[in-house]
Amino acid sequence: MSSTTPPTSRITPLVRGFLGQCPHCGGRGVFAGLNDLQPHCPTCRFSFVREEGYWLGSMIVIMALVLIIFGIWTVGGLLLTWPDVPWTMLTIVGVGLNILVPFTLYGWSKTIWVGLDLTFNPAQLEEFLPESPTDG
């Protein structure tokens, strides 16, 4: 199987991205830190940066995640405490979530973005780091 073999279905890269794996091959160890990915997958050698300004898409994903988490928090808190809604507590925790989520989930949003991109634009041969002679 070559490293450019497409995933088993079109949605597979997105699912792998949501799981924090390499969206192309499903390999692990793609994170270099909390908010950073390795330059390429250690398993299939797929380069995660596909073009200049590529991570702008992951910023959109993290904004969507913030909105979803904040919305779930607010609507859930409202529904669970109605009619005596603790507005101050909901607001303070909501603001805290809006500050905390981008700092803790930005790396994960990058794998989601790469998975979303691969869902619509499959990997090309030139996007893989060539194997060096020492890779055995």
Could you characterize what this model shows?
By secondary structure, the protein is mainly alpha-helical. It has one domain. It is 49% helix and 0% strand. The longest helix has 34 residues. The mean pLDDT is 90.
Q: Helix-strand pattern, N to C?
A: HHH
* Largest beta-sheet characterization: none
Q: Given the C-alpha coordinates, what overall shape results?
A: elongated
Count of the separate structural domains: 1
What is the share of helical residues?
Answer: 40-55%
| DSSP E strands, number | 0
Summed over residues and divided by their number, the pLDDT gives a mean of 90
Spans of at least 5 consecutive residues whose pLDDT stays below 50 are: none
Radius of gyration: 19 Å
Structural category is mainly alpha
Give the amount of beta strand, in percent: under 5%
Distance between the termini: 17 Å
**How many DSSP helices?**
3
List keywords for this structure.
136 residues, 49% helix, mainly alpha
Give me the secondary-structure topology:
Layout: H1 12-18, H2 56-81, H3 87-120
Gist of the model:
The protein has 136 residues and is an all-alpha fold. Helices cover 49% and strands 0% of the residues.
